[in-house]
Design goal:
Blueprint lengths: L45 H9 L6 E8 L6 H10 L6 E4 L11 E8 L2 H13 L5 E4 L7 H17 L8 E6 L2 E8 L7 E2 L7 E5 L12 E5 L4 E15 L5 H4 L14 E6 L10 E4 L6 E2 L1 E3 L3 H12 L2 H17 L3 E12 L2 E12 L10 E11 L6 E2 L10 E6 L7 E6 L5 E6 L4 E6 L8
Antiparallel strand pairs: 1-3, 1-4, 2-3, 5-6, 5-12, 6-11, 7-8, 8-10, 9-10, 9-12, 10-11, 13-19, 14-15, 15-16, 16-17, 17-18, 19-20, 20-21, 21-22
Amino acid sequence: MPRPPRLLAVLLAVSGCSGLQDCGARPPASPSRPATAPVAASSASPDQAALAAAAPYAKSWWVLLHSSATPGEGDEALEALKRTGLPVEPRRLSTTPFRDLRPCLEAVVARTFMSRAEALDFQARLREAGVVADVKYAGPLQAGREVACRAGEQAQRALIEGPRRREAPRFVESHVGRTFMLLAGSQESRVLEPVDVRRGVWMAPAPDDPSGLFSPGERVDVYGARGLLQGGCAVKGFAWINRGVPALDYLLREPPPESPGCGRAWAFAELDCAVPPEEWGFALPSGTPAPVFFTASEAPAELVNTHESALRGSPRFVESRSEALLQAERVGEKLKVEVRSFSYNSGEWRVLFSVARLRVGEGHSLCGMDYDQQVTRAVVMQPGAAARVLPLDDLSGDTVVGVMDLEGDGRMELLLRDSWPAPWVRLVREDGTEVAGAVVENCDSGC
């Protein structure tokens, strides 16, 4: 299902042997795959150029050594590959142009094949030679993903800088039984140590808050989707933490890696209170007026019917349904349309969400195999005023976990949470403006 592009953790620039170019010397081309990518015409747009360069690798099976949002990684895997003596064609490929791969990553590929059987056979040969590799299907090309990555890169920079106001909401996470409040991202590499057996979380103490906004002893109140979780939590110190999700090869390496396998270090303030690990709470400085939290509730049937009818008549629904019907005809499947509604209320105020899900086949659009799209319509109803439809074209109703009035101004904020293309949480205003956000980088390339 398409997700808001601003949350993609993106770093597109590559160094060393980069883009769709070969990595060092290689043997003669295998008949399974052309050795070089075609050169796009100079007049092509960046997206068109990327698609043209990626075309030889579309609908192929990749024997994947490493993938990361940080370009230029994976040199150890390439050295190990070279020592095998097997006929390899190592390349660094951007995953972005390929529909069935997680976008915005650089993949280090040993070879590509047109059949899954060939790829699995080569994976087995690498395993016998002591090299861990994964097999991924790239799928067809898909336009527009490059633009989404560039938008995500801008959003990532904003997250790294962090909120510049002390009173801004900041998300809270739990790691190894400790509670941390997100401050900002590191602009440089940090020496970190693993703090769990799986080496999924790496940490190092920080002398102070790099944003300069918090000091030890200052207190914050931590809220969840439904209200206060912990009040008066004191800042007890600061830490750099990397909790990125690495590619599969990282988890299987022997001996275990000595540095994180994905993402960057982020600055956190450690708090002296406990928050349930499953909660992505957010903190406000103690003394800040508490938000008004809306409670999940059932809306009257007449109201639901009215707004579900409005959803079915909306331009986005009509367009999505037309696309789905074409896909259904193409693959010989039936189109399934499901519409549901849910609401939140506080007194006489209500926010109603109507969500349409359009599916063809099994609906595995996470990997692009079938058509699986959704359209969400959100409406705010308040006493003495006309209902207002929120202008959130990219909103997915599946991600809504809470509704609140953060500042007591009669305008709603939505708490959103999802896991694709990376675990993320956002607090957004009615117009989609982000109030706070957090993302856990994910470097596994997907399908």
